[in-house]
# Entry
Amino acid sequence: MSPSSLFRVIALFVGAAAGCASVPPPTESLAASMASVQTAEKLGAAEEPQAALSLKRAQDEVEWARALMADKKHRRAALMAERASSDAELAIAQVQERGAIDEARRAEVSAAEPRPNP
# Structure
């Protein structure tokens, strides 16, 4: 086999392998991360300082994932969408934690109040 035909065979093989290895756009992953961000927003994450930081990070990561998808960098976009989901879920957990802490404090105050004897 001549060097030029060997080169063509290798190029064809590499091209076929690259085509099989391509990553589809992470549309479902991005949609899930956007839904998590919306949930965090609806729960009031922007008003809770710790949750607000996680929410902002998640919002930025959604935008980065969109930009990476537009540039056809689907693998990186998928990873960024996963990070966005994680940060949005963290914001949700932080809001819920704050609510649980507030509820526990109200219960402590209520328990400490004198009760009339029947």
